[in-house]
Sequence to fold (285 residues):
Amino acid sequence: MAELPTGIPMALEPLVTRLLAPNASAYTHTGTQSYLVGDADLAVIDPGPDDPDHLAALLRAIDGRPVRAILVTHHHRDHSPATRPLARATGAPIVGAAPFASDYEGGRSDAAFDRDYAPDRVLGEGGSVAGRGWTLTALATPGHTSNHLCFALPETRALFSGDHVMGWATSVVSPPDGDMGDYMASLEKLMGRDDRIFYPGHGEAVDNPARLVRGMLGHRRQREGQILRRLGEGVSAVPDMVARMYAGLDPRLVPAAERSVLAHLHDLRKRGLVAEEGALWRMAA
Fold:
């Protein structure tokens, strides 16, 4: 994956082609992956950042074929801004995740919100778009963001998992838009499915998705246990918890770790297990 050049279409299976955007970073890995679904006509999933080179690569790969829809898993700037120039170039509607609905942006440590994202049609659970020989059906998977969707391709039992399940790292969950309880419930939801493969927004395809999702659930439960142990030891500030729990972490990722720990704490508070006192946390009485 690290050697995959940007802007070069890669056929993953007869109905799925991947293009890598040139936006590699500590939070996007090698870059955002855009997907073309179909053959005679197409859907484009997560066209990525508004980058002229990536847009040109998408249009070359589309090669004049009708685009039935431009689908968006969620409203982060590494996933949705290219919807607008791509819609102008192809005439296709923008479909998928709900638009930005909050004034909150402070404290984000992953990709910022795309405040200009404006879908022509919002998909809820079970909503779909279709073309010749393909169907994409939305699964509501909130957690990473409140509006996150995955898209199932039943013809090949593939799932486009956006940033909910990635092929290289766990997703950042940053409150208040991100919600750890919702994220865990969305993982449990995927455990009840029989998808053959996941195509994530970042990282390699996941060819044993049930095993990965099970491991992600276990990892989050272990983090929760660590947090409760740190609170029991008297460690009550989020930065101190991260310093104890994430030994050797890349300094660029410390803000993301702090947001995820905070998301766990918010979930534990909702469940009555911890209490907040300003910037400090403690076990609930």
Notes: The chain has a mean pLDDT of 93. The longest strand covers residues 134-140. The radius of gyration is 19 Å.
